[in-house]
Amino acid sequence: MKKKPYQRNAGEFEIRILPDGRVVMVAPDEELMDMAKSLEPMNEQLSTENKEQNVEIRNESES
Amino acid sequence: MDLTAHNSISQRRETINAELASCKLCPRDCRVNRLKGEVGFCGLDSAARCFREMIHNGEEKQLVPSHQVYFAGCNLKCEYCSVAEWNRCPMEVEGIALEQLAKKIAKRRADGAKTLNFLGGEPSVNIYGILGLLELVDPATRVVWNSNMYYRDIVGGVLEGLADIFLADFKCFDANCSRDILGVTDYSEIVRTNVKYACQHSDVILRHLVLPGHFDCCAKPILEWIASEIPAVKVSLRFDYIPPIPAEFSPAEYLDNAQKQAVLDMAKELKLNLIE
Fold first, then answer.
1. Does residue A5 form part of some domain?
2. Which residues span the domain enclosing A39?
């Protein structure tokens, strides 16, 4: 018998991590929104590091 | 809110109260006596049950910080609904007492909330309780009616002067898409009538959540209709569709950049009044 996917109950929350690395919160409440906000500096840091890496890679390929 | 409208809330409640005895607030036309606890499609009696209130900064810029007040119960059954768990059995939701909610609204406003944003579920099927709540709220509050717009004209009339801004969803255009995804075939025509009426007396932000793979059947005709009928209306395109699991009729994938760009290009080509 095919198992049905789990259905959220009232008061539960759902976070999905997509194959491309994105994190999706489904209808977050205020606590989850605060949590997401607290992750923003980390996200920015990762983004900056990625940009720096990209610059390095570009520089390497240019030289 | 308009002060005259605020002063007439009790009469407007009476109008809705009479309607609830054989409910025809929406085109579902259930004709159940919600005053006696009978429930129709939305699963609600006459009380409004708030399941969440929060400050949200992700709404359109002119609305934020927005105090969102969520009510359980809906007259649609959108397969991709992100709060469906609250709408399955809305009568089981304990809810927050209206007096307590009114105090929270005053506090949130004092803390800087620019708008009071009623959503759900669907606020229209909760309108009797919401009117009771509005009686307790400072009339200077800016009220946002964040709705699927699937309601009878009596609701639109009662909201005149009370809802400062309609944050109006236009989900699907094609009747087959709305039948499969939302659970009604007449969605598009009802929404078009209600949006045009709302435009006559309130500020309207028409919101379209772009569904992957629904460009020709939904996004394109919606944008064309706006351009032809209400070209000045503010249009908010949303690209944050989250597929349900499982997705029987709704798209199972997330929106990609090419589809997002195609809708944006078309909106710009039609010179729509796009807002963020």
1. no
2. 28-62
Place of tokens 């109008």: B15
Q: Confidence class of residue A57 from pLDDT cuts 50, 70 and 90?
A: very low
Rounded-to-integer distance, Cα B52 and Cα B71, Å = 7
Low-confidence ranges of chain B (pLDDT < 50): none
Per-residue pLDDT of B192-210, as tens digits, reads 999 999 999 999 999 999 9
Distances (CA, A) of B84 to B73, B123, B166, B242, B257: 9, 14, 22, 13, 27
Domain count, chain A: 1
The torsion of the CA quartet B163, B161, B148, B151, rounded to 10 degrees, works out to: 150
**Token couple for A49:** 């590091």
Q: What is the mean pLDDT of residues A14-40?
A: 89
* Residue A45 forms part of a structural domain: yes
What H or E segment, with its residue span, contains residue B192? helix B187-201
Mark residue B37 as left, alpha or beta (left: phi above 0; alpha: psi -120 to 50; beta: remaining). Answer: left
DSSP state of B168: E
Which residues in chain B are closer than 8 Å to A7, comparing Cβ atoms?
Answer: 85
**Tokens (6 digits) for A27:** 């209808």
CB contact (8 A) between residue B54 and residue A24: no
Residue A13 · residue A32 · CB < 8 Å: yes
Interface of B with A in 230-249 (CB under 8 A): 242, 245-246
- Segment 36-95 of chain B within 8 Å of chain A by CB: 51-52, 54-56, 82-86, 92-93
Domains of chain B: 3-274 (3.20.20.70)
In a domain, A23, yes or no: no
How far is B113 from chain A, CA to nearest CA, in Å?
14
Nearest CB to A27 within list B83, B92, B93: B83
Cβ–Cβ gap A29/B54 under 8 Å: yes
> ∠ at Cα B145 (B49, B40), nearest 5°?
45
ipTM of the complex: 0.81
pTM, full prediction: 0.92
